[in-house]
């Protein structure tokens, strides 16, 4: 520790022995090309000074280092040009320090930087000069600071950026408009989760490069529920974007801004039944919701009714487990009329199925959702099978009593469990139909599926055509 202090006189002239110290410093500086500060470990191209109690940057950092680790120290500021004598520096780790702002030129001449970790510091505002000139920077870690504001030019000029992490800050507004395809062609991840973004400029968000939309993390913000938010997030979810898939539970929004009335917007889509999910050309696209309950092992047909009517309609389905349904899927079949067949529903087939009908001719498409719940077979096959078995036993008992131990003619005992389709007809109670949808006398092939337009969805939803 004492040696650190002696090696870092920030203002040599203040001391009476200034010139002597300056000479000493220059000597050390020359030696620094080969030597390593005593509190650091220098291995080939890496200098690690983490957890060394540093309050200031050591002056004698090896100039040839590619990686410099200064994390877990007590750094509160960086002088201008702190790293300008390290031309090969690519990875700079300064997480877990006490930096509250960066002075102009802090990274002057550190243009080789590709990975910069400033996470878990105390930065408040990200100013435009912070990362000026770092055009090779690919990864920028700013999570867990105290950032309330990211100024508009803060990321400009960082044309190599691939990933930026702003999670766990207090950001209320983000300059989405400053990120464009031509300015940030490689940006594939922008993490803004766990901030304070209440309302986002969704038109700006929708104008972000497609690559970035796939990697935009917005969960755990105190967002206010509205249709424009839902239509964007719903789409990204339907397209299987990881940010939505991996953090479904944390996509919450509050009704009318009341934090006590918060809903998980991807799991309670009913609240958004009145929303119209818009196409790019602002033409309405119907989102129809319905619920289907079936028991395990049954055959399920999901229709894809659509307000579109064209000669060349094509249909695609997204399965919650398999993603886009391909023709090669053994247990699923997609009919040309859009109906999806699940041959033997398994419990893990439950979830939200999304059908999209595309009219290529008119470039229109419409989407519907079906929430499928597959209940384990035991209960149902027990209750229905039980009735059959009981009847059989009674019959058998009667026969036995009548014939005094004549063996059962087992046509009755061995009768297999009836296939599910007849069961439904006989015993609708075996299937927990949603109460609002009384099972109709459907054509027997469509047993499991509610007629979509006439049920609850139809009552609340009036698709515009
Ligand atoms: C920055 O780099 C330029 C060119 O590489 C060099 O001329 C200049 O002296 C450097 N500045 C500092 C402060 O090292
Ligand atoms: C959500 O964000 C808050 C701060 O906004 C944070 O304290 C909390 O840990 C976050 N939750 C998760 C699960 O990340
Ligand atoms: C689907 O239905 C199940 C059970 O009824 C429910 O728990 C789940 O939240 C529903 N999911 C959606 C997206 O509506
Ligand atoms: C949807 O619209 C219906 C009829 O206009 C209305 O009664 C209902 O409250 C609306 N639901 C929501 C969640 O706004
Ligand atoms: C679609 O075709 C399949 C197989 O021909 C049929 O079972 C199903 O009922 C059809 N669906 C509609 C909505 O016509
Ligand atoms: C889903 O369940 C079926 C049988 O119940 C099983 O064969 C299959 O491996 C399961 N798939 C996954 C992804 O868990
Ligand atoms: C729906 O239509 C829009 C605009 O034509 C298109 O960008 C989008 O890819 C379509 N969606 C699907 C799933 O085909």
From TrEMBL:
Stated membrane topology is: Single-pass type I membrane protein
**Which keywords does this Swiss-Prot/TrEMBL entry list?**
Cell adhesion, Disulfide bond, Glycoprotein, Immunoglobulin domain, Leucine-rich repeat, Membrane, Repeat, Signal, Transmembrane, Transmembrane helix
Q: Which InterPro entries match?
A: AMIGO, Ig-like_dom, Ig-like_dom_sf, Ig-like_fold, Ig_sub, Ig_sub2, Leu-rich_rpt, Leu-rich_rpt_typical-subtyp
Q: Which SMART domains does the UniProt record give?
A: IG (SM00409), IGc2 (SM00408), LRR_TYP (SM00369)
Which biological processes are named by the entry's GO terms? brain development; cell adhesion
GO CC annotation terms, alphabetical: membrane
Q: Where in the cell is it found?
A: Membrane
Q: Say yes or no: keyword Repeat present.
A: yes
Q: Which domain of life is it from?
A: Eukaryota
Give the family, as the similarity comment puts it: Belongs to the immunoglobulin superfamily. AMIGO family.
PANTHER family assigned: AMPHOTERIN-INDUCED PROTEIN, AMPHOTERIN-INDUCED PROTEIN 3
Q: What is this protein called?
A: Amphoterin-induced protein 3
């Amino acid at each position: 520790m004492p040696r650190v202090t002696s090696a870092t006189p920030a203002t040599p002239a203040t001391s009476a022995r200034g010139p002597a110290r300056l000479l000493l410093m220059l000597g050390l500086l020359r030696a620094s090309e080969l030597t390593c500060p005593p509190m650091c470990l220098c291995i080939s191209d890496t200098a690690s000074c983490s957890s060394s109690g540093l309050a200031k940057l050591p002056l004698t950092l090896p100039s040839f280092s590619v990686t410099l680790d200064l994390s877990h120290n007590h750094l509160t500021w960086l002088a201008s040009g702190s790293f300008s004598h390290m031309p090969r520096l690519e990875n700079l780790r300064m997480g877990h320090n006490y930096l509250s702002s960066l002075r102009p030129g802090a990274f002057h001449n550190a243009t080789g930087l590709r990975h910069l970790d400033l996470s878990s510091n105390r930065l408040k505002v990200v100013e435009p000069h912070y990362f000026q000139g770092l055009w090779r920077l690919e990864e920028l870690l700013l999570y867990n600071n105290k950032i309330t504001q990211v100024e508009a030019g803060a990321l400009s000029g960082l044309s190599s950026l691939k990933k930026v992490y702003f999670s766990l800050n207090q950001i209320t507004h983000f300059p989405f408009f400053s990120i464009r395809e031509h300015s940030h062609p490689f940006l594939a991840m922008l993490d803004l989760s766990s901030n304070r973004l209440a309302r986002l400029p969704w038109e700006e968000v929708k104008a972000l490069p497609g690559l970035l939309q796939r990697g935009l993390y917005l969960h755990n913000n105190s967002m206010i529920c509205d249709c424009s938010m839902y239509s964007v997030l719903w789409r990204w979810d339907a397209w299987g974007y990881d940010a939505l898939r991996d953090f479904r539970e944390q996509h919450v929004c509050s009704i009318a801004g009341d934090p006590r009335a918060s809903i998980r917007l991807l799991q309670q889509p009913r609240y958004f039944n009145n929303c119209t999910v818009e196409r790019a050309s602002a033409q309405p696209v119907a989102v129809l919701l319905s619920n289907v309950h079936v028991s395990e092992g049954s055959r399920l047909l999901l229709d894809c009714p659509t307000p579109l009517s064209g000669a060349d309609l094509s249909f695609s389905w997204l399965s919650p487990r398999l993603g886009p349904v391909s023709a090669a899927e053994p247990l699923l079949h997609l009919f040309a009329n859009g109906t999806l067949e699940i041959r033997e529903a398994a419990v893990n087939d439950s979830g939200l199925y999304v059908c999209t009908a595309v009219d290529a001719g008119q470039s229109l498409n419409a989407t519907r959702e079906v929430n499928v719940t597959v209940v384990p077979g035991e209960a149902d096959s027990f209750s229905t099978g039980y009735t059959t078995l009981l009847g059989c036993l009674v019959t058998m008992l009667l026969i036995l009593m009548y014939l005094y131990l004549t063996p059962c003619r087992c046509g009755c005992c061995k009768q297999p469990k009836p296939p599910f389709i007849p069961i439904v007809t006989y015993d609708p109670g075996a299937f927990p139909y949603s109460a609002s949808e009384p099972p109709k006398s459907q054509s027997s092939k469509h047993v499991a599926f509610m007629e979509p337009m006439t049920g609850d969805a139809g009552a609340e939803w009036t698709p515009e055509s």
